[in-house]
Amino acid sequence: MTPNPAIFTPLLIAAGIFFVWSCYRRFSLVTLGRPEDRFSDPGMRLMEMLLYAFGQKRVVAKPFGVNHFIIFWSFIILLLANGEFLVEGVVPSFSLALLPAPLYHGLLLAFDLVSLLTLAAIFLAFARRIFFPPTYMSTTYVKARSLEGFLILAFIALLMLAYFGLHGAEISLGNEPAAPYMPVSSAVAGLLLAFPSAVSLQSIAWFSWWIHALVLLAFICFLPHSKHMHILTAIPNCFFASLEKPNTQPREEFAKGGEFGVARVDRFTWKDLFDSFSCTECGRCQNACPATTTGKSLNPRQVIHAIKTNLLANGPLLQKGGAPVIPLIGEEGEGSSTEETIWACTTCGACMEACPVLIEHMPKIVKMRRHLVEMESKFPEELLNLFENMEQRSNPWGIAPSERTKWCSTMEIKPFEKGVTEYLFYIGCAGTFDSRSKQVTVALATILDAAGVSWGILGKEEKCCGDSVRRLGNEFVFDRMAKENVQLFREKGITKVIVQCPHCFSALKNDYRQYGLELEVIHHGELLDQLLSSGRLKLNRQVSDLGGVLFHDSCYLGRHNDVYDAPRSAITAATGSAPAEMERSRNNSFCCGAGGGRMWMEEHSGERINLNRVDEALRQNADTICTACPYCMTMFEDGLKDRQAGQTRVRDIAEVVAEGLRPA
């Protein structure tokens, strides 16, 4: 049953024109962004797209994600059925029945069963929103937009009901010879025949056809103007995602009169802007974010939403050469992110790890920090001393470089010699100056000697890697520090580096590649595992006096660089048993609160992030919390003092292994 094409065809053409025009208006705004190469290695990109977009890898990582997986694949499968419906409305003689019978009957069976499955998934989604809403839906923003979510679900439900009404009526009228291959529609036909109605079967078929047509056309028109635009953008966004971990920042070229960082939406890259159109607003990023969890103003989902809102408001004006009307960084409101929000980020990467469509939140926040620091000199007051200390003495504390060798005053340590020494032991600022971290440095030096590793240090010549200043947006200072370090490393002929700090590890391994320096950087957790597993390091005893050991994953070692197993293996080898796991561990680990330069800043709102993590550890009654990062160690020890939990100790993995070197 197909109504008069003369009525439907103009409606379809109008809806199609409106859809194309709407998409053009929105996607043309993306071209305001700065150039960025996201086209390299198309084969790998295709694989990533298949895995994350079509395979829904991250979506199904959460239990309710299976429901979305069903809806997504039902949408893909039913594209063919809806395509036939639209074409048939214009050309009634067109039908998939022209295909070979086995193929046609198989498609009808698939359409029928998938439509039923979709209807069930939609009702589950309705029930979840009404009776079991996730925490992110409790925010003011989501409440204001909840009608849109219900509307989209209602559209899909109506499409499925109209599909069954149309085909059920057709089967009842005897107009569907392939009815045996449509079990659900046949059941609907049986119900229609079993319960006589004042409305004729012909009227039901006609009404169902038009409901299906009008809802489908309305969906086409509404889609580009709703958050469900991600239906169009999520798949290509996965294709254009970073092929490497987004654990570094793009370099800036400094020239007189230049603009640095991002203060206007058109200073983002085109991929940044495309990200904003791809957000599904699923809330997973904010559920993973330590700042959001502890009551800070930062919500990574709303940061992305603000970029999209700002682009929609300012984009048309910028296209005409005008000025933006809504500030990207400003007071709280639609389309703007506050300075407090921007400074709350710990750059832990949890938001990016959780995002189903591979949006890169953290780099956008750092770009806005760059503007505040480099163009406006606006940053939290406590960072003034940090920046000055870094510029003048190349360490956060401003301690004289001559003090860099005090940690080894009781040991015989050799300087690195070009062509003689294999590894540079890059101590890092914390391992050099922090009294607690010095103990880790000594423990690791002892281990290296016991294993016969050829190593040396830079001593007074060592400079900070610059991780904190880069994540805080002070790219100018980082650029100078990185260039000085690169020059020093090349002069010394350094190619292999041992580090004990994940922030040094990530900076030297990832950031410095932008300066043409390719290093073999190994974190001490990896090195300890290698030395123990190879038998090169032999322990004198099993470390058994630590009680229950609980391991905490550093964000910059784990999420940013995928080092998870090596530290655990080293602890297992030293203690004889695997460490216990936090409730949130590995790629789902919760930040200690010190990353992104937050080590040097106070928390003025909400709960302290380190206390949230310490409470999690204390719930597991661990005797020893084991870390592999000096920042994490500091945050845990401070948190345990605040919680008056003196019975719980904090140890670095190097300290645990070094204990095993003591005489039995």
From TrEMBL:
This is (Fe-S)-binding protein. Keywords: 4Fe-4S, Iron, Iron-sulfur, Membrane, Metal-binding, Oxidoreductase, Transmembrane, Transmembrane helix. PANTHER family: IRON-SULFUR-BINDING OXIDOREDUCTASE FADF-RELATED, IRON-SULFUR-BINDING OXIDOREDUCTASE FADF-RELATED-RELATED. It comes from Geomobilimonas luticola. Residues 270-301, 334-364 form the 4Fe-4S ferredoxin-type domain. Gene3D superfamilies: Alpha-helical ferredoxin, Transmembrane di-heme cytochromes, Chain C. The chain crosses the membrane at residues 6-24, 64-83, 103-126, 147-166, 178-195, 207-225. The keyword Transmembrane applies. The keyword Isomerase does not apply. InterPro entries: 4Fe4S_Fe-S-bd (IPR017896), 4Fe4S_Fe_S_CS (IPR017900), Cys_rich_dom (IPR004017), HdrC_iron-sulfur_subunit (IPR051460), Helical_ferredxn (IPR009051), NarG-like_sf (IPR036197). Pfam families: CCG (PF02754), Fer4_9 (PF13187).
